[in-house]
Write a structure and sequence with these properties.
3 domains, 6 strands, Rossmann fold, 469 residues, DNA Cyclobutane Dipyrimidine Photolyase, subunit A, domain 3, Serine Threonine Protein Phosphatase 5, Tetratricopeptide repeat
Length: 469
Amino acid sequence: MASPINPSRIRTINDHPHRDGTVVYWMGRDMRSQDNWALLFAQSLGMKYKLPLAVVFVLMPEFLDATERAYRFILKGLEETERSLQQKGIPFYLLLGRPEEEIPKFVRQHNVSKLVTDFNPLNIVRSYKKTVAARIDAAFYEVDAHNIIPAWTVSDKQEFGAYTIRPKVHRMLPEYLEEYPPLRKHPYPWPSPVPATDWQKADRSLKIDRSVKEAGWIVPGETSARNALQTFLKERFAGYDTDRNDPTLNSQSNLSPFLHFGHLAPQRVALEVLSLSGRPIREIVDKEKNGSAANRGSDAALLEELIVRRELADNFTFYNTDYDSVLGFPNWAKITIAEHRGDAREYLYSREQFEHGATHDPLWNAAQRQMVVTGKMHGYMRMYWAKKILEWTASAEEAMAVAIYLNDRYELDGRDPNGYAGIAWSIGGVHDRAWFERPVFGKIRYMNYNGCKSKFAVDEYIRRMNELK
């Protein structure tokens, strides 16, 4: 069986000559059985060399600031993924512990000769993979199953902004925006008995904050993700280009939690949008390039957010290891922040005051409440929210720490390149330009209450958020 995957999606971490054994897909960022280039590549290795295939997921006892909200989403989604894999003759192992310990142990115990994992640009995950690579005697591959165009292919450097990465994305999209081949029933059985997954034991192993509960409005898993996509396309997609930035309108896709946890492939979303639109990708790209924002259409607007902006965030975290720090800001932003470090702040709040929505600003408090209660703040409000944290803390360093903590603790799509890039844009001018100078912000782009009031019904948004249970 020839590999069904474009070779540029694959990076070799450990290059070992072929030997018999087993093939394992170490699932991480892309928690799904369908539309998964990493799993498809792992299966192609198994078919080519006539080897058994298994999928392994390592459940860490804690991860950054993830709470029960995030972990329950992971576990419920994995239960469905396990069932889907079993139907294809592919066993699933849930390992409890640290990946740098559990993966090498599993490789030794099960004679793994080929290990495949999915791409994640975050520092902590890259560190795990580096340690695993040094501890195993097996071929080790990384596949970008998250981006439509692999992060290392779309660009070989950190991009200045959307305007520099967009032409590269548009040029490559026709080659990479292809339909997925199906996952086949694997014909080579796993050589040893597979223990039943003890999901209750897995839950008990967690050392997390359980005070942040599940979000009741969303159901995890691949089936739910696909249903949510179809609901969006049928009910809200038509107004996406004009209404998505109004927090009082239900016009966003609400797919970010599914995309973050890998229950839904961005490429699947793009393919469904193209199918509904009926326009070829080249026509959409050309219209977006030549037309104004007002006449691009919902297909172009969604593909801009889904592909260009998402891949820009991965590019930022992949090539800038200081993505969660002031050190990662562009030089002009570092300079202006330093020049205004001593500016007087009208208001100063502690992390606890921010967390409890106890500021003087009812709009900011409403946005914080939306995030705490639902696990998903409206995208437009996330910009205002982060910029005000910069305004109401003593330094950009403190602002970054507070914003990342709150985002990663409460947002279902926290601990994500999109989140780090968005916060760095708001606080440190990443992917932006210098603006008119003002106190505290310096030349960082400014947002205020009156600006929001001119764009949407602020009082209505505040009222709805205050009614959330």
